[in-house]
Amino acid sequence: MRQVSAALFFTLLLAGCSQQAQPPNPNPDPTTLRVDPLVLSAQVGETISGTVLLPALQQPLSYTVTAKPDWLTVTPEQGTATPDAPLQVRASATCPETPQVLQGQVSFETQPRLPVERASITLICNPVPGDTTPEAFSFEQVNGAAPGSTVDSNEIIVSGINVPVTLTVQGGQILLNGALQAATSLTVHSGDRIRVRVVASSAAGGERIALVNIGGVSAAFVVITETPPPVGALQVSPAQLDFTAVGPEHKRTLWVTKDNSTASISASSSNCEGIVSYTPASARAPQAAFQVTPLKAGACYLTFRVGAESVNALITVTTTDVVVE
C-alpha cells in the first residue's frame, strides 16, 4: 500500500510540474491568429505611436500588411513571427488640428496561409488644454457718423489663445475674416480677424454701442451720430434799397444769408410788379445774391423764404421829372 501511494503521489507531482512548464496559449482559437486592438490617444497636431504584436503558433509565420487606413503608418509592413517572439509592428499617426476620433483596421496575410484577425486601430485626438483667455482688445470710437449709416469698426486680431473660444456680440454684427456673420455667438480661433458693424442712430448726437466678448474679455464699439451746427437766422442785406433812377444800369444786389444751411432761398413779391424786377427766382444758402433792377417810381417789399422762415427787404424807387421850357 505504501508503494502504490508513493507511486501515485509521484505521478501527480510530475503532472503538476508538466502543467506549470507549459507556456500560456495566446490564441484560444487555434484556427485563427488573434491580434489585440490598439488605441492611440494624443492631442491635436501631435504624432503618436503604438505597437501591434503579431503572434505565431507552432512554427514561424511571415506577415505582410495588405491594407491600412490612410492616416496610419505601419512599419515594418512585412516580417516574421516565431512561437517565442511575436512580430512587433509599429503603428504611427498624426492627429488632425481638430478634436476627433478616427477608427480603422490593418489587414494581414501570412505564409503559410492562416486566417488572421484584423488589427483594430483607434486614434483619439483630444483638444490641447491651453489658454482660453485672449489678449485685451479695443475698438476706436467713431464720431460724426451720418444718421442711419452703416459703420464698421477697426479690425482686431484674436491673440493670446491656443484653443477655440466663443465670441458673442450685442447691439451689432460681426465680420469674421471679412465675412458678415448672421449669428450673435460663434467660435473664433487665434489669428482670426474681427470687425464690428453697427447702424448709426438717426438722431443727431445719438449713440449706438455694440458689446463684444471673446473668451471672457470684452470691449465696446461706440458710434455717435453727427450733430449739425446750429442753423442761423435768415437775413437780408441791405434791409432796404433806395433807387433814385431807373434802368438796368442802376441795378443793385441784395445778399440773403442763412448760415450752416444749403436750403433753397426763394424770392417773391406781391406788390413789386412794374416797380422793380429781380433775378434769380431762387438760389441756394448759405449765401445767395439777388439782382434788383428799378423800373419806375414806387415802393414795395421783396420777400425771401426758406421753409416757414421769411425776411423782407424794402425797395423804394424815386425819380425826378425835368421840365424843359
From TrEMBL:
N-terminal signal peptide: 1-21
InterPro entries in the record: BACON
PROSITE patterns named in the record: PROKAR_LIPOPROTEIN (PS51257)
Source taxon at top rank: Bacteria
Assigned keywords, A-Z: Signal
Domain BACON: 58-102
Protein name: BACON domain-containing protein
Organism (species): Deinobacterium chartae
